[in-house]
Amino acid sequence: MLNKLEHVGIAVKDLAVASQLYQSLLGVESYKQEEVASENVMTEFFKVGDTKIELLAASNEKSTILKFIEKKGEGIHHLAFEVDDIYVEMERLKKEGFILLNDEPKKGADNKLICFVHPRSSNGVLIELCQEIT
């Protein structure tokens, strides 16, 4: 079961520029910057109340974020939902006919296990499942 919207991922060309913009917009500083080497991405997180914003910038030319920006421009990249058990949720979604982008969860940013649901099976929206690593 999806518990809550965990964060909104936003693809950006320049993390430093976007970080300044969101710091001014939200009135808070980021609480974490982290590289996710497996995804070829640099991330930066902001939190306002219970809402998190994750800025995503390509760390190299192999990054899917770079490809996303080239195709669609900067903007909302994905919606991430918190789950209690990512394995159970992945199995449930597969049985419901959703296409998952990975067969096993992988380590993501902000101490999470993650899995993505292909936008083709969710009305064009990339959905991330995330579970806190304990």
From TrEMBL:
PROSITE patterns: VOC. CDD domains: MMCE. It comes from the Bacteria. It is an enzyme of class 5 (isomerase). Residues 4-132 form the VOC domain. GO terms for biological process: L-methylmalonyl-CoA metabolic process. Keywords: Isomerase, Metal-binding. One of its GO terms (molecular function) is methylmalonyl-CoA epimerase activity. Its EC number is 5.1.99.1. Belongs to the methylmalonyl-CoA epimerase family. NCBIfam families: metmalonyl_epim. This is Methylmalonyl-CoA epimerase. The gene is mce.
